Amino acid sequence: MSTPERAADVRERPHGETVHVTVRLLASYRQFLPRDHDERAGYPLPVAPGTPAGQVLDSLPIATGDRYTFLINGRHAERDDLLQGGDVLAVFPAAGGG
Fold it and tell me: How confident is the model over 53-88, as pLDDT tens digits?
């Protein structure tokens, strides 16, 4: 399995090209799902190929300063990992305790 691309690795993309990634909001973040949406499933989001995960994360209605964890295709990821068509971006609040 290949590793996610990083922002510095991307070449120019044609303008207007979009792909769909699936966004899954988990735990208390399910409150931010689109209306009438099955909370067990993700929802499709059109993005330009090579969009950094951080750009999508910043567009979500999660409070600024909220701590969360996110995965791309079930693997821990970085904000500068680049999204491609078919990727699944799962986001859930950070767990505390001990």
Answer: 999 999 999 988 899 999 999 999 999 999 999 999
SS3 for 4? coil
Strands of the chain (E only): list them: 19-25, 43-47, 51-52, 68-72, 75-76, 82-83, 88-93
User: Which DSSP string corresponds to 27-42?
Assistant: GGGGGGSPTT--TTS-
Measure the CA angle with vertex 47, ends 57 and 5; round to 5°.
75
Under a CB-based contact definition with an 8 Å cutoff, are residues 24 and 56 in contact? no
pLDDT in tens, 37-58: 776 778 999 999 999 999 999 9
